[in-house]
């Protein structure tokens, strides 16, 4: 429009979308102030077949495969007019079965303006969280870089927490609950040396 008017789009004589006088777009809502607002008229059911209650559905064109990203939502960075992505969230197939999908978080670790983003964290189809690993085998699995030792936490079925210094070394610190519900701390050098302490309480 040439004046300060809203541009309204209707289907079946009902409003479906509008562009307000500020250029903001609203879909499924007539009350909005952001650049894009999308509102579903139904409560979410998380049924991936009916999509009931989903405000936005995103899908890419990747082929099926363990580790393949299937849909990406990218976030920009302050790089002037280049409009490159700085971070992203993606649905990721985390099994050979295409129906088993998790969520990947990607960042830009390099100082180079043009780069391929790296996966920083992954939640797989079982709900396991991986940092520094694309195949978390336990509820919380972190692996440090091979270049330097760091203190990291890793959970598994035998321990409440494990700390692994780097990607090439076995877990070096375990925190667990014993059979008598006492706390156990075990320290190992990744080879044969270890020590265990009972009745350890950490608050």
What's the helix and strand layout?
Elements: E1 7-11, E2 14-19, E3 25-27, E4 36-38, E5 69-76, E6 85-93, E7 101-107, E8 118-123, E9 129-131, E10 140-142, E11 153-154, E12 161-163, E13 173-177, E14 183-188, E15 194-197
Parallel strand pairs: 3-4, 9-10
Antiparallel strand pairs: 1-2, 2-3, 5-6, 6-7, 7-8, 8-9, 11-12, 12-13, 13-14, 14-15
Short description:
This protein is an all-beta fold and 203 residues long. Strand 1 (7-11) and strand 2 form a beta hairpin. Helix content is 0%, strand content 36%.
Report on the structure:
- The chain has no helices and 15 strands.
- It has 203 residues and is mainly beta.
- It has a six-stranded mixed beta sheet with strand order 5-6-7-8-9-10, with no helix packed on it. A five-stranded antiparallel beta sheet has the order 11-12-13-14-15, with no helix packed on it. Strands 1-2-3-4 form a four-stranded mixed beta sheet, with no helix packed on it.
- Strand 6 and strand 7 form a beta hairpin.
- The protein is extended and about 70 Å long.
- The C terminus is likely disordered.
